[in-house]
Amino acid sequence: MLRHRKKLIALVVTAVAALYLFWPGLSPDLTTPPALHLHHSASYGTNSGAGNVVGIEPYMEPLDYANAGRFEAKLDGYLLEAKAMGWIGEKTIVLLPEHIGTWLMAVDQKSRVYNAGSTSSAMLPIITHNLGQLLKNLYIFDEDDAVTAALVRTRTRASADAQLAVYSSLARKYGVTLVAGSSAMMTPGVYADSLSYGHGPIFNAGFVFAPDGSAQEDAVRKVHPIPSEAGFTTSAQPGFLPVFHEAGRTIGVLICADSWFDDTANYLAEQGADMMLVPGFLAGTTWDAPWRGYLGDAPDSSAWRTDVGNISEGEAWVKYALPAKAKAYGIRFGMTVFLKGILWGEVGSGRALIIEGGTLHVGEGDDDTAALYNLWLE
Q1: Could you tell me which of 185, 144, 187, 180 has the C-alpha nearest to residue 296?
Q2: Within a domain: residue 243?
Q3: 172: buried, middle or exposed (CB in 10 Å: 19+, 13-18, 0-12)?
């Protein structure tokens, strides 16, 4: 009798464990519109008819990635605010932050994903419901961070389709050039009906959309991944960075850490870029924390080492990233924006950096809210 009771208990425990592992939760409640958390906006320069850059630092939350419509509604809310301020016109360029599209790997899932408190607990139900494809990718490919890479590959098509639909729709709706931040994506590129094709390496990549909604030139692939990305993404080469001829400008895009390096900034300047735009994401530290130094790749010169721990993260961004590179290469206009919000335990930080005719402005937004910035061009 005791033996049968133990077997029954073991079966119950196994059933509960299996239910926990495979139960995805319920359909998420999407009846409440996405909250913007927008408490700060600022504009620089005067409207001379030469166009402008609108930088969006959105405050993103897990539920904003529940489906493509929800994601579009969140970004549309910020664009509506910018339009109400008179910042949307036929020569407007809109800049989104780094990794804003990465979490679209969670698109079209159940409530357990969006209620998770960490990336690992959010990944579990996604993995279990895509187990066959994920195991196939684990077997075929070989990266240091094998599970994350397999998950990105498994979810790339869903993420890429959502990004293409949303970014194209928003660019057309507002008639703007949209620099659509970035996301981790397998084999990114501009193809006939997709932003990803085939089975190849993963890059942290972004795209630029014209006012007619079409993706332009090629993907912008990150050249200098940071350690948290290096285990599953591939480093691109500076010589493959595209420039974009939109809104009467020649635009260079540097994804986050790429704005700290001369090989990337110099290449874009040589290609004629007269403006540099930087999608950024700062997590694992704060703007006011002591600077930890270059975390992955580093310049050949080691002069920067004396600043480690002696200046703040924000001061280092000013000294080494876009402001410094703009001055070195004669770039008179540029902007860096950062992703804000709390996404499965990842907290976004940072302050926008705006280059107006060679003058630097540092955004006054904070980490707990969204911000909008406008830069009138000459």
Answers
A1: 144
A2: yes
A3: middle
Other C-beta atoms closer than 10 Å to the C-beta of 241 total 25
AA identity, residue 223: V
Residue 88: CATH number of its domain: 3.60.110.10
DSSP result, 35-71: P--EEEEEEES---SS-EEEEEE-EE-GGGGSSHHHH
Output the pLDDT for position 101: 98
- How many other CB atoms sit within 10 Å of the CB of residue 145? 16
Burial annotation 34-73 (CB, 10 A radius, 16+ → b, else e): bebebeebbbbbeeeeebbbbbbbbbbbbbbbbbbebbbe
Mean pLDDT per block of 10 residues along the chain (378 residues) reads 49 44 75 96 97 98 98 98 98 98 96 92 89 91 92 96 98 98 98 92 98 97 96 97 96 98 97 97 96 93 95 98 97 98 95 97 94 97
